[in-house]
Amino acid sequence: MRFKHFTRQLSAPSLACTLPLCLLLCGAVQAQTPASPPPAPSASSPTVADKQAPEQATQRIVVEDASTRIDEVRVGGETKSITVKPKDGMPAYDVAPATGERTWKVLGF
């Protein structure tokens, strides 16, 4: 039995549909491959912390009145944490500096 080779010329419309589909599939396959991890820094190479400017100043600001105590920590002028401690027996809570969202620590040990 003899097989005939089947050859077909692709028309412009079918090629226009096939090419984007192939590119889409190649992109999907490439997106699923894991990226290689960055090389571990050696002991002799300087780290990012070594290349930065000198250590930034840390400020601890405490504001207290008759009902609350507010502790604020700033590093390099940027607020990192705000803790509010009411004096009337209510639990302390943290305020997110960026959003102003309050969070309570539940079952803190």
Short overview:
The protein is of the alpha+beta class and 109 residues long. The protein has helices at 12-32, 48-51, and strands spanning 58-64, 68-75, 78-86, 93-95, 102-104. The model has no long low-confidence stretch (mean pLDDT 74).
Task: Report what the structure shows.
There is one protein chain. This protein has 109 residues and is an alpha+beta fold. The protein has a domain at 57-104. The chain is built from two helices and five strands; from the N terminus they run ααβββββ. The protein has helices at residues 12-32, 48-51, and strands spanning 58-64, 68-75, 78-86, 93-95, 102-104. Strands 1-2-3-4-5 form a five-stranded antiparallel sheet, with no helix packed on it. The N and C termini lie far apart (82 Å).
Brief descriptors of the model:
109 residues, alpha+beta, five-stranded antiparallel β-sheet, 28% strand, extended
Chain-wise SSE layout:
Layout: H1 12-32, H2 48-51, E1 58-64, E2 68-75, E3 78-86, E4 93-95, E5 102-104
Antiparallel strand pairs: 1-2, 2-3, 3-4, 4-5
Distance between the termini: 82 Å
Number of helices: 2
How many strands in all? 5
Main sheet characteristics? 5 strands, antiparallel
> SSE string, helix = H, strand = E?
HHEEEEE
Looking across the biggest beta sheet, what order are the strands in? Answer: 1-2-3-4-5
The low-confidence runs, each spanning 5 or more residues with pLDDT under 50, are none
Q: Give the DSSP E fraction (strand runs of 2 or more residues).
A: 25-35%
The secondary-structure class comes to alpha+beta
Mean pLDDT: 74
Q: Tell me the overall shape.
A: extended
